[in-house]
Amino acid sequence: MQPILLTGASGALGRMLARELAAQGHRLRLTDIVPFPDALPEHASFEAADLNDGVTIARLAEGVSHILHFGGVSIDMQFETVFGPNLRGLYHIYEAARREGARVVFASSNHSIGFHLRETRLDADCAFRPDSFYGLSKAYGELMGRLYWDKHGVENINYRIGSCFPEPRDRRALSTWLSYADLARLVRATLAAPRLGHAVIWACSANPAGYWGEDHRDRIGWQPQDSAEAWREQLDHITTNDPAIESHQGGPYCAPGYSRAAAPTANAFDLP
Predict the structure, then answer these.
(1) Which of 32, 97, 103, 168 lies most in the core, judged by the most C-beta atoms within 10 Å?
(2) What is the pTM of this model?
């Protein structure tokens, strides 16, 4: 079994995936810019690395079958902070995958489409409408995958992650929540899939109030098993008074620096 490279291994999702995949018997190379805070799982190694360091990333990727790319800036920050790890760093990931013939699993985000209105039902081929520089970097990442598939045949799958926490936290999460267990099942299904091409998955649990529709999950045979609906009574009232937040799918990432004079609504000047 070829090893798997997991970036962002010291984050909450990386640590969970390291445990789950190690328990399945996978050999793991873990990396992050900060130390791994847990005991290393069996058959796993860890090396600190900066995604801006293409030489180190290439070395860590030697001989791997998959690169699970969960690294980089994971919250809304200024452009200069996001640029290095999320744009240049992703180039290093894809160049390493091209050289090794590895698949890329890219942790994209709902923030790549966050300025779509909440009443709009989206399929995987919808227009990008990023809500922040972070969301913009995720749209760039998905387009990087499109380029490397079309030009080099690098298989990749893009998880548009909703709100991945142990439990949903507010009304919006009743639509966007992804349980840890459903994410782990998604990764396992991806690793087992015989063929991916370039794929996009709405990475959320089976929430009846979800915003998102068709994607490429049939290629990997994944269906989420959990749902946020059990928390509706305790969360349905947890909202804000900010129209930019409450009108758009990206929620709180839409608000910082928002300067449009008009209330956010669909209008005739939006491109279809």
Answers:
(1) 168
(2) 0.95
